[in-house]
Amino acid sequence: MLIHIQDAHGVSEAQKSIESLLDYLQSHYGLNRIYLEGAVGGLDTERFNFFDSPVQNEKIWQKLFSESVLSGSELYLLKHHRGSDAQGVEEEGPYAENLRLFKAVMGEARSSESLTQTLYDRLDLAATRILSPASREMLKAWWHYEDKREGLLDFLKALLKNSGAYKTFEANPWKYQARWPNLSRLVALKNLENRLDPKKINREKETFLNLLRTRKVNPSLIGELEKRAGKEGRSQEGRSTRSLFEKIVEALGNQKETPFAAFPHFIRWGQYQILSEEIRAVALAEETEQFVHELAAGQLENAEQKNILKLFDRLLLLKKALKLELSRKDWKALLNRKEKVRPVNIAGNFNQLLAGKPGIAPLNPEDFKKGDGAFGNAVEFYKTAVRRDSILINYTLEDMEKSRAAKAVLITGGFHGEGIKELLNQKGIAYIQISPAMHGEISSHAYVDRMMHGVVSPAETGLSNVAIPAAVQKETVLRRLGEWDYIAGRVEEAVQAAP
């Protein structure tokens, strides 16, 4: 059995979740081996034992974890002394090439951002002459959302003002859950958020827990609910909140009445937890894009207006490529129309669209050649990332067979999920795929800061498709990857700052 954890590189909440998840899987099911993306071959965790005191060492590990030098999986390995049970599954050449391409693309982030904004300004100029004001504002809101200038909920509210068939979405999101399961949950979640009263929730919680004890409900269920509803908040391990409440309902099933109606605020808290756990980040992003595309297409009447939307789609694909935030679905779309998405060709499309319009000078193709270079690097980045799918899974399966590991965990970025799933199905290997729990806003600043060795890109990038180099791998590998000096410097700072 292979458990595939789909990582969100450099996101603190995801890393904490992965550490807890590994601990839970080990204690409940036993793990023979742990396989890491971003590492080549055997690991060297011993050099992170700086002092005789385990407590002092752990303080330094936590410091390095907070700076994205250590991942959640590395923190787990260090805390539980399991370095010998883990293995890197990268092939050094392709991984090094992905790192190089990442830095090349991110090094051009400022000029890429300027380039895509220039192209959007030209599209907006065309929209003022071709689209209705409502359609133009919709595209502008969409651009601002993709540009991280507007949050998803504010974006949805702007869309729903003139949404026609979806005008009751905000007031009654469950009406639309079959078509838009993640969007409807997000809207329902925010509707519930405004009705949560922490004082009443806590008061009802204590009474509810006492009632469960009186009714002889399994103490382990009561303890799990008490922990989950405690000050530390949502536990990142064990069963889901929905499953927990289902077990409690089952335990109360033989009694004359269930007590939930008497605890409206605590039950509302439970509903909020369930919704937050059931929203899937990748699916939510895809639904959002489908939703806004459907709304925009419904407002366009003629071929010229529809052409604006086609150009906008290409421009968004270019923007995502230059920020290295393509999903697997986006990558497939880009492959099918790579030349149409190239910056020089998009500029040419706008020149054709606005040809003959008074007061509008054509774009100069020479201004976009540098952007073509960054775009080419982005395309090669994704080709290499896809090629690494088979490398990661082949090394994993080879080592499982060699070490006779019956149960193992493979941790990679989510972009590899689809490719790894296909490969495992082809090989007839039993597997489970898990994504770490993440709530609230997800930022990639820490990821970019770590990958660029502290030279932070001015543009927010997506959760990219190459893992941060594991700090616990061997020094010789880190030196060849060009990562040793940065990691050693951060480690030395943390050790010197230790009390």
Describe what you observe in this structure:
- The two termini are 44 Å apart.
- Helix 18 runs parallel beside helix 19 (417-427).
- This protein has 22 helices and six strands.
- The model is unreliable at 232-236 (pLDDT under 50).
- Strands 3-4-2-5-1-6 form a six-stranded mixed β-sheet, with helices on both faces.
- The protein is mainly alpha-helical and 499 residues long.
- The protein is globular.
In one word, what is the shape? globular
Count of DSSP-assigned helices: 22
Helix content: 55-70%
Sheet with the most strands, sense and barrel status: 6 strands, mixed
The radius of gyration over CA amounts to 25 Å
β-strand number: 6
- Helical/strand content category: mainly alpha
Beta content: 5-15%
The CA-CA distance between the termini, in Å, is 44 Å
* Order of neighbouring strands in the sheet with most strands: 3-4-2-5-1-6
Chain-averaged pLDDT: 89
Low-confidence stretches: 232-236
User: What string, H for helix and E for strand, traces the elements in order?
Assistant: EHEEHHEHHHHHHHHHHHHHHHEHEHHH
Task: Quickly list its features.
single chain, six-stranded mixed sheet, globular
Brief rundown of the structure:
The protein has 499 residues and is mainly alpha-helical.
How would the blueprint of this fold be written?
Blueprint: E1 2-7, H1 12-29, E2 33-36, E3 40-41, H2 54-66, H3 72-79, E4 86-89, H4 92-107, H5 109-130, H6 133-146, H7 152-160, H8 181-193, H9 198-214, H10 219-228, H11 241-252, H12 264-278, H13 281-298, H14 303-322, H15 328-336, H16 338-341, H17 343-353, H18 369-403, E5 408-413, H19 417-427, E6 431-434, H20 445-451, H21 475-481, H22 484-497
Parallel strand pairs: 1-5, 1-6, 2-4, 2-5
Antiparallel strand pairs: 3-4
